[in-house]
Amino acid sequence: MVIIPWLLEHTLFCYLDFQLKELYHIARFEKATRYYSICIEKDLLGDWTINVCNGRIKSRLGQNRILAFADYNEAFEHFCLMAKQRKQRKYQLENYKTDDALFLQFLLVMSCTKLPIL
C-alpha cells in the first residue's frame, strides 16, 4: 500500500509550475539617508537588463545605470550578487517585488525559519 502525503493529494498541486521562469524582480534597499534600487527586466530588444538607481533619500539627485546581459541566468546571478553586497554594507531590504508567487512564498518561509548554529 502506497501512502500519499496530504500535500500531494490536493487537487491544486498539479497546477504548480516548478519550471525555471524568466520574471522581473525589483529590490529596494535603504540606509538612514541613502537608497539603492535594483530592477531586473527584459528590454525591447529581448536582452535582460538590470536598472540600478541610487542616491539620497528625500533628494531628486541620484544616479541611474543600466547593465545589459545576454541571458536571464547571468542577469539574475548578478542581481543576487548586488543584493548580497547591499546587505554586507548594512543596507536594509525595504521592498521586494516579483511575478513569481512561489518564489515569494519560498523567501517568506526561509526568512521565518531559524537555521541551526553549528
Automatic annotation (TrEMBL):
InterPro entries noted in UniProt: WGR_dom_sf, WGR_domain, YehF/YfeS-like_WGR
Location of the WGR domain: 31-93
Domain of life: Bacteria
A UniProt-annotated Pfam family: WGR
Designated name of the protein: WGR domain-containing protein
Source organism of the structure: Legionella feeleii
